[in-house]
Write a structure and sequence with these properties.
Strand content of chain B: under 5%
Shape of chain B: rod-shaped
Order of helices and strands of chain A: HHHHEHH
Number of strands of chain B: 1
Order of helices and strands of chain B: HHE
Number of helices of chain B: 2
Strand content of chain A: under 5%
Helix content of chain B: over 70%
Structural class of chain B: mainly alpha
Number of strands of chain A: 1
Structural class of chain A: mainly alpha
Radius of gyration of chain B: 36 Å
Shape of chain A: elongated
Distance between the termini of chain B: 85 Å
Radius of gyration of chain A: 30 Å
Oligomer: heterodimer
Largest interface: A-B, 76 and 64 residues
Distance between the termini of chain A: 30 Å
Largest sheet of chain A: none
Largest sheet of chain B: none
Chain lengths: 267, 116
């Protein structure tokens, strides 16, 4: 009995340390989950924006060629095919879904929701206790709350134990796919930077050609408005490039955060 | 020469054409010719970039399929197990609450003082 009492503090320290390290790990998983959705949204938006800019560029070129060649909408082509876009959308959706589920599990979102519900239930069921006698006592609301809290602690510990045991294994299995999707999207962002730069250069030159060729027939105010569009195109190009760089950086961080969680594990 | 090398050459040519375009006098014919050259180079670069994206599509499909077939079911299974535990906890709490309510309203169920 004495030996048990001697090692009890040590065991308590070990348990508390374990809880603290799990808490830190689960917060990191939560942060990974929170940061993944915006990063993937950025990538998804960048894919759509690149397609839109390319279409605008093609329309501008065709509009400038109208005098010589007439209306030719059949020459418009999408930058990315539907199958290319669909494959990326599937990968983005799968990773978003995974990150959300993993974050919810690590942060105990389901347990939190249930605890809130249980508190509401408990408050609604609160009954006034009968006057206690010397030989028998009615259970007070406070005592009932103690009992409910005790149950909560037991189940919370069991749930944490299950998540702690199984989630890192699943995340380790998922890591190669997470790394692959992120690096593929990063490479896509580089390609889009190259494409958007070319598209904006074309837009700028075509706008300038329009002013050069038809500027003489424009009024001063209209010509001024057309010249101002040149500045706008340059600004849009800079913003688009900055957005793509941010998307690329965010994807890199998602991949690194996931890998660090897998390598670090729950200590 | 790899496709990446070709792409870099076209990108550099595009950048040089753009610089030459803006350096050329606006009233002369050079700008128009350079704009046409730029369109040609831009078309080439678009084709190279499209090929670049297409080359990754099957890898995206494979990664998405792996997530869908083996990773997500494992996470959902764990989530289901947690949901069951939460449900058991909820049922026990409900039972406890009901029992206590009964105990406070029925004298037969009064709990002996020493037990509390």
């Amino acid at each position: 009995m004495k030996s048990i009492l001697r090692i009890a503090p040590l065991m308590l320290v070990l348990v508390l340390t374990g809880c603290a390290s799990y808490g830190r790990w689960s917060k990191k998983v939560g942060a990974f989950s929170t940061n993944t959705a915006p990063a993937l949204n950025r990538a998804s938006a960048a894919l759509n924006a690149a397609n839109a800019v390319h279409t605008l560029q093609e329309e501008t070129v065709l509009a400038n060629q109208y005098a010589e060649r007439g209306y030719r909408p059949g020459e418009l082509t999408a930058f990315m095919s539907q199958s290319d876009l669909a494959a990326r959308k599937q990968a983005i959706d799968a990773l978003t879904n995974y990150a959300t589920l993993v974050g919810d599990l690590a942060l105990g979102k389901r347990v939190q929701a249930e605890t809130t519900r249980a508190k509401v239930l408990s408050a609604a069921k609160a009954t006034t206790s009968a006057a206690p006698s010397s030989k028998t006592k009615s259970l007070t609301q406070q005592q009932m709350n103690y009992a409910l809290s005790g149950l909560d602690i037991v189940f919370k510990a069991q749930i944490e134990h299950k998540v702690r045991k199984k989630l890192p294994v699943i995340m380790a299995k998922a890591d190669p796919s997470v790394q692959q999707i992120c690096s593929l999207l990063e490479a896509d962002m580089e390609t889009l930077r190259s494409q958007e730069k070319a598209d904006y250069i074309t837009l700028l030159m075509q706008q300038n050609e329009f002013i050069r060729q038809d500027g003489g027939s424009m009024g001063a105010v209209e010509k001024q408005a057309q010249i101002m569009k040149l500045f706008q195109i340059e600004q849009d190009a800079a913003t688009a490039d900055a957005d793509l760089m941010k998307a690329e950086k965010a994807l890199k961080q998602v991949a690194e955060a996931h890998h660090a969680l897998v390598v670090g594990g729950v200590k | 020469m790899t496709q990446d090398d070709v792409k870099q050459v076209v990108e550099r040519a595009l950048s040089s054409t753009s610089s030459a375009y803006w350096a050329a006098p606006p009233e002369g014919p050079a700008q128009g010719e350079l704009a046409n050259l730029q369109l040609l180079l831009s078309g080439m670069l678009t084709k190279l970039n499209q090929a670049d994206l297409e080359s990754r599509t099957s890898d995206f499909q494979t990664a998405a399929q792996t997530m869908k077939d083996s990773i997500l079911p494992a996470v959902k299974k764990l989530d289901g197990q947690i949901a069951k535990l939460v449900a058991v906890d909820d049922t026990l709490k409900q039972a406890l609450t009901d029992a206590m309510k009964l105990a406070t309203t029925t004298s037969f169920f009064k709990i002996p003082a020493p037990c509390l």
